[in-house]
From TrEMBL:
Belongs to the PPC synthetase family. InterPro entries: CoaB-like_sf, DNA/pantothenate-metab_flavo_C. Catalyzes the second step in the biosynthesis of coenzyme A from vitamin B5, where cysteine is conjugated to 4'-phosphopantothenate to form 4-phosphopantothenoylcysteine. Has a preference for ATP over CTP as a cosubstrate. This is Phosphopantothenate--cysteine ligase. Coiled coil: none annotated. One of its GO terms (biological process) is coenzyme A biosynthetic process. It is an enzyme of class 6 (ligase). GO terms for molecular function: phosphopantothenate--cysteine ligase activity. Pfam families: DFP. Residues 43-94, 177-276 form the DNA/pantothenate metabolism flavoprotein C-terminal domain. Its EC number is 6.3.2.51.
């Protein structure tokens, strides 16, 4: 009897990447979130954000990491919610988070004070209640207000990953969960994902010993998850990938090649050093440069606002066609 067709990537995922124990529960949560918001007229975007961790040992002491602060994903989530989207935020544990990102470099203890006044010397240390020091937290009231509105409207569903395996399985679950809402789903794949990994079968259990001499690593290629996502898991969705390079001369060529290979809707191309001031949104027919000037910086305009505006318009057109 013929076996049901399982794409080789599905097989690899099951065999070589540990399945997180909560994946089915998360999938159901994401599906319910999408159904609810689409029924109330919203669209849903799945944002991936932050870098994946690739362990070198199964009881992990050492790991490889991909660089990403999570700022792009977190700020984009805010602009998507401002544009009427509900957001599934699949992010690296402890990377930047919507709204809280604005205060990530502030020491919490500097942001608080005793209401009784006093500079905090020994004699005043117990005077009054602990209150927020607004000077240390500019714009806190505005951010808190919007954060509470978002919570009240249940517009944000946060899901965490740390390892590459968790990321891959949770992204697959998200794609399958969102396939039920067809073209109303957008995938905004801003996470920085490793191209290399050590398969579970070849990974040592215990900490690698330096007494064995210099370490030689042999890493396998990570399966290209975009391919089954676009073809099999969520074929009607609007899919955006990000292309990161450090060499600007190869960037656009790589972005175009990704579009040709995976046949999704757009690639946001950026260079590591200039990513906050310049990106190119590449589609099969168009190429739009988005730029942040010094004047924009003074006015607190962020490039993610422009990226999101460009992509939500394109998503509109995609749905109506
Ligand atoms: C990006 O290119 C993101 O824009 C950044 C954002 C990670 C540069 P931050 O989080 O930075 O704001 O600090 N993400 C995609 C990176 C990536 O791994 N892309 C793969 C590639 O370029 C394809 S999916 O090959």
């Amino acid at each position: 009897m013929a076996k049901p067709r399982i794409s080789s990537i599905d097989g690899k995922l099951a065999e070589e990447f540990a399945v997180p124990s909560h994946v089915e529960e998360v999938k159901e949560k994401m599906a319910a979130f999408a159904r609810h918001h689409v029924a109330t007229g919203r669209r849903v975007v799945l944002i991936t954000s932050g870098g994946t961790k690739v362990p070198l040992e199964s009881r992990t002491v050492r790991f490889l990491d991909n660089f990403s602060s999570g700022r792009r994903g977190a700020s984009s989530a805010e602009y998507f919610m401002d544009s009427g989207y509900a957001v599934i935020f699949l992010h690296r544990h402890r990377s930047l988070y919507p709204y809280a990102r604005m205060f990530s470099n502030i020491n919490m203890l500097d942001a608080l004070k005793f209401s009784g006044g006093g500079g905090g010397g020994a004699s005043s240390s117990n005077s009054g209640e602990v209150v927020v020091n607004q000077q240390a937290l500019p714009n806190i009231a505005k951010a808190l207000k919007r954060y509470q509105e978002v919570k009240e409207g249940e517009l944000l569903l946060p899901i965490e990953f740390s390892t590459l395996s968790e990321y891959l399985h949770l992204l697959k679950a998200a794609a399958q969960a969102l396939s039920t809402i067809g073209s109303k789903a957008m995938f905004y794949l801003a996470a920085a994902v490793s191209d290399f990994y050590i398969p579970a079968s070849e990974m040592p259990e215990h900490k690698i010993q330096s007494s064995n001499g210099p370490l030689q690593l042999s890493l396998n290629m990570v399966p290209k998850i975009l391919s089954p996502l676009v073809k099999d898991w969520a074929p009607q969705a609007f899919v955006i990938s990000f292309k990161l390079e450090t060499d600007a001369t190869i960037l656009l060529d790589k972005a175009r090649r990704a579009l040709d290979t995976y046949r999704h809707q757009a690639v946001v191309a950026n260079v590591l050093d200039s990513r906050r001031g310049y990106v190119v949104v590449v589609t099969p027919e168009t190429q739009a440069e988005l730029i942040i000037t010094e004047e924009d910086v003074k006015n607190d305009v962020e490039i993610e606002e422009r990226i999101v505006s460009n992509l939500t318009s394109a998503h509109n057109k995609f749905i109506t066609q």
